[in-house]
Amino acid sequence: MTASAALLATPAGAASGNSKSPFGGRALARLAAEREQSVGAMSPRLKGEDEDDGNEADEIAEGADQYAEARTSPGVVAPGAYGAAWTGMTNLPRTGGSWHHVTDLPYNSDDSRYRDVDSNSSGGSGNVTGRMAAIAADDDGYVYAGSAGGGVWRSHKGGGNWKPISDGLPSQSTGALALDGSGRLWLGTGEATTNADAYLGSGVYLLSHPHQGVFSSRSRVGGDELESTTVHELRFGGGKVWAATSAGVWSHSTKTLKGAWKLEFAPNPDYLPGGSKADDDSAAYKNIANDIAIDPKDPSRVILAVGWRSGDDYNGFYTRVDGVWTRITSGFGDLPTDADDVGNVTFARSADGSRYYAVDQSPEQLNTNPDSGLEGIFSAASPFGPWTKIADYKGLAADGSALTSSGYMPGVQAWYNQFLTVDPSDPKHVYAGLEEVYETKDGGATWSTVGPYWNFTFPCWSIDPAEQTGDCNQTTHSDQHGVAIGRYHGKSFVYVGNDGGVYKRPVDGSQDASGHATDWTSLNDGTIDALQYYSVGVGKDLDHGGVSVTGGLQDNGQSILRSNDKVMGSNFGGDGGDTLTDPANGCNIAEEYVYLAIQVTQNCAVNDGSWVDDATKATSYNVAPADNATGEARFIAPLAADLKSSSTWIAGGRHIWVQTHGYAIRSGDEWKSVYDLGAGRTATAVAASGGKVYAAWCGPCNNQGFARGISVGNADGTGWHDITLPVDGAVPNRYLSGFAVDPKNADHVFLAVNGFSRHWTEGPGAGVGHVFESTDGGATWKDVSADLPDVPADSAVVTPNGGLAVATDLGVVYRAPGHTKWQRVGSLPAVAVLQLKLSPDGKTLYAATHGRGIYTVKVRDCD
């Protein structure tokens, strides 16, 4: 599903000394300006010429398109692809050895050691982990957290001391979690935030006794009807469980797992699998359901909230009239019914059934309003209305929000950030989540921002490590997705899930004079690792021995773990992309933000924040090449060091950039463009050895005219040329995601190819195969995939003994030297591994997973 993403990211590399404002505050100013420029480029409806993502050009939405494009282009992937791939992976023989979990310890985003110019440390989020898409909690202290890509976790202590409970499932992507009236836990797989760095799911599963046991594939509800969908919400009523999915609204009996799911309503059934328009490029957007409201007094009365966040003719609310699902066009009061104003919607109702609440994101606002995409928060005595608006973005901004700047105000990402819940003991006590957490105790007459975006904009903030976050209290991480209210030791708590993990506070907690909560607790204690890494870097720790491990993360910056650490720190903020770490010195680090915004440090970015008062004390430097300024680079753009010279770097945007000053680089002007890939083309992978450079590109990169290629040349700018790769040639017309150069021979190179083969992808030249080999510098290629399952390949590395390790969307595979067959390395759950790196001595393989942290395995154990 090629949907855009919500990555509120902090742009790294702002010039030090230009402002005494914290880095985070400058980030919002820049992001707001970029959003204002992009409004008008968005389309509230899917146009014929751009049906893949609504033409949403702003940075926030465009960000993770690359993640989906890599897996879907040049066509639409048929349902069942990941299920078949997982079966193939589990049937492969195993190598020796097992994975060692590196990042299973707390990750402190406010670590006082790392307060340089590009850090968000002191913002107030505390310990973090990866994105949590859904939360459930009961009255016995059990809390269940469903992560975007790392499965479901259970705590029996009201949060903390987590254990994974879904590792045996073929999908680790969570869409919905819900406890029914009998205390059973229902899991809807497939994250439904329309964020493209998550996966489609494998259906709905039931854990009958969730206090113990784990989910198993045998506990799937129904058949394969919900495979390859996302599940936004699960609701209960009339003996049924209702599922709002990316393929319409479905229902199933809650009394038995057997029997097929019933399709209750799909606004455009021709676009569903098996339909006459199932192969249309816009099929993934034509039947999106967001939520279901069931009248507790009469379960036959149901409201469906349906619609694509960027707008389509079918968007709206539906109910049954004389047995036929019919759009509601009037009688809703303040809650709009016009398709232009109904996008992503979330419902909630009070325990006694006396009040209903709704959050509505407007496609029209998304397209025309640079400040927010929020239509409002609404309340009614019945899901059938009439509804009254009780909050809008301007009112929320005035109630203690950190988002008060024009261009970035509450609800600016309401298509991505939404939750809503009602205190079981008080129908007027409501928690709402957008980018921040809001609370009302009087049914919406007044609101407080109990979980502000961060503390940077408030008078209480201080970067002084001695004061930690000054007089400010801890807040939650930004970008809210899941919420639940439960009890522990007789006390009620609200649990929220967001891009930084899980947080809790007492339901009737305390607030300061600004309305900010004083009692949030991070539950990301290191026992839960759902960190979504894009990259990993490893270098010797010269101060403590051993190695220093760094990595770029979705919305959690760059983590750094030194050999003597018991807590990881964060030395760069925002979205962490690709990374380079000097094998000889782990404090020499180059970190990419997005679009090749690269910053470099030579002291691990250790800083006490004194740069705020003295610009000369900054130790991080913005060294972005020119493609960053023009936006001619992928969101997560490729960055590599020459295998033979760690001071020679290659970066890829529209141009292939080379710089030879290594970590001593101090300016973006030090990059030299050695090759222009051409207008509309951007690099997807780069690699170099001994001055020979390989660059893969795409352009266009989506499934509308997708094209790909390889260019080869020298780091000194000579000998550059395009390799001829015909659409139906040896290398498929799919996304080229990584190179692995033989360190003994620069002309010997392997290519990792993403996406699925033509068996699953209906697009021109989709071809077959995922690993290709060239022995003549890329002039010709041979498919060496052999028995490798049809699974997207992301990265590869040649081991010192001549073996080949390949990172895939479902784990790591290895081909021993002299062999042609593949083995599965260890037993990682069904999680994407986006990058592989070797330790400085070449003896250990590091795997950056996008949902379960960083792992290592000894290379010798793979043979």
Describe the structure.
With 863 residues, the protein is mainly beta. Strand 35 and strand 36 form a beta hairpin. It is globular, with a radius of gyration of 25 Å. A five-stranded mixed sheet has the order 3-34-33-32-31, with no helix packed on it. It has a four-stranded antiparallel sheet with strand order 2-58-57-56, with no helix packed on it. The protein contains seven helices and 58 strands.
Would you kindly provide a brief summary of this structure?
The chain is mainly beta.
Annotation, overall tally of beta strands: 58
Helical content class: under 10%
Mean pLDDT across all amino acids: 91
Taken as a percent bin, the fraction of beta residues is: 25-35%
- The end-to-end span amounts to 37 Å
Rg over CA atoms: 25 Å
Which strands sit side by side, in order, in the main sheet?
3-34-33-32-31
Secondary-structure content class: mainly beta
- Major beta sheet summary: 5 strands, mixed
Query: Number of helical segments?
Result: 7
Molecular shape: globular
Low-confidence stretches: 1-20, 41-64
